[in-house]
Structure formats: structure tokens, C-alpha cells
Amino acid sequence: MTWLQAIAYFVGEALLSLRRGWRVGLLAILTIAVSLFLGGLFALVSHNLRGQLEAWRGEARIVVYFSADASQELLIEARGELAALSWVEAVELVTLADARERFGQAFPDLVDVLDDPDADPLPPSLEVRLVESVRVAPLSETRHEWLSGLDGAEWVDDDRVWLDRLESIVRAGRVVGWGLGGLLLAAAIFTISSVIRLTAYRYRDEIAVMRQIGATELLIRCPFYLEGFLQGLAGGLLAMAGLWLVYAGLGPDAPAQAVREALIGKFLPASSVLAFLALGALAGGVGAIFSLRREFVELDPGID
Amino acid sequence: MLAAVIQFLRVSKRFAAGPLALDEVTFEVGCGEFVFLTGDSGAGKTTLLSLIYRAVLPTSGSVLVNGRNVGSIPRKKVPYLRRTIGIVFQDSRLIRRKTVYENVAYLPRILGYSADRQREVALDVLERVGLAERASAFPAQLSGGEQQRVAIARALANDPAVLLADEPTGNLDPDLSQRIFRLFVDAHRRGTTVVVATHDPQAISSFPARVLRLSQGHLVEDSSREKTAPPVDGVTVR
A14: which chain B residues are within 8 Å (Cβ-Cβ)? Predict the structure, then answer.
């Protein structure tokens, strides 16, 4: 038998078996699809959040707030000092008037709040954009102290501090996601393993006959391995299709667009989709191998 | 003396902690011989046949097929031994989900025969057993006798040097049994060495051949002396 004939034989037998036992096979396919779908969902959200965090980090600024009575001269002088620093790319002065205007644009319904003479919610500030080399990590303590020590400065707000916190939460979520996905994948492998074992048990007599009339182990086992592989691949395809439906279903018309953009704004890259398909196929194949390792022993003491 | 195809040299077999299924059994079967293996139930007939195609290994002694010690054949090579031996079981053991044709063409298929050659071989042996017209039926659609004839066709598909049959007529009525035995005689006529395990005295008397009788694991009779048997379908069976 040539390799081409062998492959045609394996595929033919595996497809025949899948067609015959489609109900049980469907269970295995759905189990692996659910686990890969959940894993994929976590990967999708994680992928988007990571991209979003990187974008936010790129735009991150340090804002030095001054007391409301800080003079214009003081602010201009501080801006000059900051602009001269090597780690500062640009400095923008936001006066009380500028701050009010921004607030009014962002929250037109709340603009009356600013008319309260006792309230002082929008002090003048200097928005500092850092050079790229120091943009990623939060400000060092020394630099933070230096900024806090500027004349009239009241507090320093570093965007990257909350970005770091958010990133930690995303990272923890990703770990939980992978853990959950791993558990579900293990369950899927177990299911596929059981299905293949059940199939092998169901055809135990046939397998014994095949052996007795001279079929090699490769010819007997490979169709089962291929069956598991195909079940896993089908599960992966189903999971990715489901994920695409979620992504496409929550399209631009969906409510809470900002949240949608942050969570599932972009679909998984092709490499990740292929990786999930490969993972499904691998899980199916591994499940089949595990199931047959045990099932075939003692069927034929003459060859063990 | 014909060249030995099967040789048992002081072969014993014990399963687990049970009694000896075979005890120091020694005999030879020559090329082209027709042998009845007989004895009561539990005498060791099935064990003896199983040793030939290495479904089990001997506890002691040697089993040689075509001069090769079956026990020393590497595990991966066992299928190649089995491809030279046609086997027919009492319960036919057909692959239920395959048609008659697919059952018979299975071995030619895994041997890599072309589709045309598979078809040629399978239809030829099905013709010989008179079931060519049932090629597309499934085993469940056949009678017991027909199933057994398909099993014989499958065993003959690779033109084996040796044909083993383990109580092939155990579940059949006398008329069908006679018909099945004629198929073995036909295979023998074409040069195949045939060993049939049976405790059917009528078959043994109807188709004279060498008789090996087992009793409680011992070979108690070997009628291998030269004799001229009455012709069966015009053929002399030795």
C-alpha cells in the first residue's frame, strides 16, 4: 500500500465513522467548540484591551495641577522649566478658562456647576507629554517629587498609574481566562477521548477481525486518530465561527460603542485563529491517542 | 514426504493459572494437505489454531509456519504472517458495517491492490462461493450459511498458503455444512493447505482427510499414514 493509498484509506474510514456515529461525534465537537469559543472570547477581549492600553499609554500625560490663584507668570515660568527637561516632549498650559471650556464641551449639561463661587473644581494645570523612551513606565519618584516641588504645584496626576492598575486587572483576567480555557480544553480532550474509546469499543470485534486478517496497527489506529483530529478541527472551526458572529453581531450599531471598541473592536489576527484551529485539532488527536493507548491493549495477546 | 508448512514441536500452552490447554503437542502438516482437527469441546482445537496465526503465544515449544518460528516474529511483523493465512471462524466474524464486497475486498485493499484488481479478486472468490450476486448486501441481510461463505471468500481473497477454519459449520444445519466443506475441498484442490477444526463426525467421514484428534490438550491420534481416500467431486483427498 502506497502512502497515497494509505491516506485515502484513513480519510475514507474516518469520514465513514464520523458519518455513522455523528450523534456521539457531535457531542465531542460541541464540547471542544464551547471550550475554544470561551478561550477565544478571552483572547479576543484580551487582544483588544491590550491594544487599547497601548494606545492609551501612547497618549498618556502627566498633569501638574496648580492652585487656583497661581499667577499666569508662575505658570509660564513652570512651563518653561518643564519644556527644558530632556524627558519632556511637550508642555501645554491649561488655564482656568481653558479648563472651563473643555468641561463645557465634554459635559454641556453640567456647566452650571462651575458657576458656584465656593467650588473650585478646575484649577489651572500643565499637561506634560513625555518623550517616547520614558512613556511606558510610571514616573520615577525623583521626577514625581521634582514636579510636585514646582512653585504653586498642588498635585501631580500620572495617567500611567491607573493604566498600570488596569493592565494588572487585564493580566489577571487573562490568566483566569487561560485557566478556564485550559480546564475546558481538558474537558474537551476527555470528551473526545471518551467518544473515540466508545467508538473503538463499539467496533472492538471489527478491530479484532482486522487484526486477525492482517491489518497493521497503523491501518487500524490511524482512522481513529484522524477522526479525533477532524472532530477537534470541526470544534475549532465552530468556535471561531461563533466568535466571528459575536464580533460581527455587535457591530457599529450596537449600544455602548466605546465599550465595544475597547473589548472587541478588532477581530483576532489570522495567526491566532489558525492557532485556535490547530489547538482544537491537536486536542482531538491527543484525545484519540490517549483513548486508544488503553483500549487496544489485551485485544490481541498474540502481538503484545 | 511433503514439505512442512506447519510444524508443532513439543508445544504446550497454559492460560493464566488454568490447566494446560495443549500439552507437548508435536506434528507437521505438509504443503497442500487437508487436515481435520477434531476432539471434544475444550480439547484444545481453537488454541492450536490460534497458535498458528499467533493469536496466542506458546508457553513452551515452537510453532513454525513455512519454516519460521511464529513466536519469534517481531510484533510489527505479525500482520504479514496473518496475511499468508486465511482464517474462518465459527461465527464468521464479518465486519458488520461493511458490505459483502467490502468485507472480501478488505485484505486486497490494505495490501494496496488497485481498485480494479480488488474488484477482480473479490468478485472471483465471491463467484466461487456462489455469492457474487449478494456483493452489495450487508452481513445482517445474509443467512448464517451465506455469512460463513462470505467469511470463506474473505479468507481466500489473498490466495493464502494456509487456510484455517475453526468449527466453520458449528452453527449450520447438515446440508449447509456439507456445502461449506465442499468449499474447503475446492480450496484444497487449488493447492491450499487446509486445516479444519471440527467435531462433526459426519464431515470427517464424508470428506476423508488426515485427522488429528486432540483430547484434553494431548494429541491422541494422527491418521497421517498413507491412504487412498474415496474421491470427492472426482478429487482424491489425502
Answer: none
Cα separation, A260 vs B139, whole angstroms = 59
Identify the DSSP state of A65. E
Is the confidence metric ipTM above 0.85 for this complex?
no
Q: CA distances (Å), B196 to each of A135, B51, B79, B152, B167, in order?
A: 88, 14, 21, 12, 7
pLDDT tens digit string along B173-213?
Answer: 778 888 888 888 988 998 899 999 998 888 888 877 899 99
CB B149 within 8 A of CB B177: no
- A61-134 folds as Alpha-Beta Plaits (3.30.70)
**B15 vs chain A: nearest CA distance in angstroms?**
11
Interface check for A304 against chain B (CB to CB < 8 A): the answer is yes
pLDDT digits (tens, 9 = 90+) for A176-225: 877 887 887 787 777 777 777 776 777 777 788 888 888 888 888 888 88
B50 vs A302: CB contact, 8 Å cut-off?
Answer: yes
What B126-131 contacts at long range (C-beta under 8 Å, 24+ apart), as own/partner pairs, is B126/B100, B126/B101, B126/B150, B126/B153, B128/B153, B128/B156, B128/B183, B128/B186, B129/B153, B129/B183, B131/B100
Sequential DSSP letters for B108-176: HHHTT--HHHHHHHHHHHHHHTT-GGGTTS-GGGS-HHHHHHHHHHHHHTT--SEEEEESTTTTS-HHH
For residue B129, give the C-alpha cell: 462461493
Do the Cβ atoms of B112 and A1 come within 8 Å? yes
Using the beta-carbon criterion (under 8 Å), do B110 and A206 form an inter-chain contact?
no
pTM of the model: 0.66
Q: Chain A residue closest to B96 (CA)?
A: A206
Contact check, Cβ <8 Å, A213/B94: no
Where in chain A are the domains? 3-56+164-297, 61-134
Residue of B nearest to A1 (CA): B112
Interface of A with B in 200-229 (CB under 8 A): 203, 205-206, 208-217, 219
Measured CA to CA in angstroms, residue B57 lies from A281, B19, B71 at distances of 39, 16, 6
What residues in B contact A1, CB-CB < 8 Å? 110-112
Chain-chain contact of A9 with B76 (C-beta, under 8 angstroms): no
Grid coordinates in use for A250? 455587535
Q: Give the architecture (CATH level 2) of B4-222.
A: 3-Layer(aba) Sandwich (3.40)
Domain boundaries, chain B: 4-222
Give the pLDDT confidence score for residue A91 in this predicted structure: 87
B residues 109-148 near A, CB within 8 Å?
A: 109-112
